[in-house]
Specification:
This protein is α/β, with parallel strands linked by helices. It has 13 helices and eleven strands.
């Protein structure tokens, strides 16, 4: 009888322990456990570019705000399309995140060669916009072209050669739209990074380039490149590009701010997305991050998913209007 009683008590204790463990596991949220491994954020553009610099600086705070290290890496090819295609191998709630923008999701799918694009915007979940930037067009200083009036006069008898970062990216599209509105023929030359495109202009291999302001800053200060226009409806206000007449003042409207979205794989839980977004919004407010944004001449952003979706749709409409 004592033996039977002991067996019964042991069964009750074991059942209670199992029940307790089961209850503990059932109350754990997936977001509490995410991430259980280091997080990798992939920049699909060149090392040393604006997106790369922002990615590496933000990664410093990964351990502090996500509980795991954040590894900043680059995967180049086809203006970002290689990395965005390879990213589709990830499953929902992956520890891999990636950068992307309107070039990949609004422009590339709507221009010649779009049949080669293996991904779409819906394959990703927008987490946040890392920054927005205003493009600038610069010219080889030897051309003495300082505004769009000078460009139009020069282009009346020349096919202009324009260096860009990727043939289907934002810079290439804006260049084609601008020259179309001005009635000027152009030839685009693609480079694997804006810095290489700018160097080609400075050396006289090409005549013009589109880039972020910070990327052209050094060459403008050195006098090898001259600002022609900024792609905005108002002048930019900084020491390097002050008094550069914006394209909007010429009645040109086929441009948009360049964006850099942080993206997760489709199907990632809203709780995980919210956790990543919260961490990165806090990172963006760090003093050294704000200092970096100022140096890079870009703006931090708290865009919502709806804001990002609207930006993609807005650029698609601009692209379609310029076919």
């Amino acid at each position: 009888m004592k033996k039977l009683f002991s067996i019964l008590m042991m069964s009750i204790i074991m059942s209670s322990a199992l029940f307790a463990n089961g209850t503990k596991e059932s109350t754990q949220s997936p977001v509490d456990a995410w991430p259980e491994e280091p997080v990798t954020v992939i920049c699909p553009w060149a090392v040393g570019g604006v997106a790369d610099l922002v990615n590496r600086k933000a990664a410093v705070y990964g351990q502090e705000l996500l509980g795991q290290p954040v590894l900043a890496t680059n995967e180049l090819g086809a203006g970002g399309n290689v990395a965005l295609t390879n990213f589709l191998k990830n499953e929902a709630n992956s520890y891999n995140l990636i950068f992307g923008g309107e070039g990949a999701f609004s422009i590339a799918p709507n221009v010649d060669g779009s049949e080669a694009i293996m991904f779409k915007y819906d394959d990703y979940v927008p987490v946040m916009n890392m920054y927005s930037a205003t493009f600038v067009m610069t010219a080889n200083a030897g051309l003495n072209i300082n505004n769009l009036d000078d460009l139009k006069a020069y282009g009346a008898n020349h096919t202009c050669v324009v260096a860009v970062n990727g043939i289907a990216g934002s810079e290439a599209f804006i260049a084609k739209a601008l020259f179309k509105e001005l009635g000027i023929d152009l030839t685009l030359v693609s480079y694997n990074g804006a810095n290489l495109a700018l160097a080609a202009v400075a050396k006289g291999e090409t005549e013009f380039a589109l880039s972020h302001q910070s990327q052209a800053k050094g060459a403008v200060e050195a006098g090898t490149l001259t600002p022609v226009t900024v792609f905005s409806d108002k002048p930019v206000n900084n020491d390097v590009f002050k008094d550069v007449k914006p394209a909007g003042e010429y009645g040109i409207d086929s441009y948009f701010p360049n964006t850099c979205f942080l993206l997760a794989r489709k199907g990632t839980s809203p709780e995980v997305v919210a956790k990543i977004r919260s961490a990165y919004l806090e990172i963006m407010q760090k003093e050294d991050m704000q200092k970096l944004f100022s140096q890079l001449m870009v703006e931090s952003s708290d865009w919502t998913a709806e804001d990002m979706n609207n930006h993609i749709e807005h650029v698609i409409q601009i692209v379609q209007n310029n076919k």
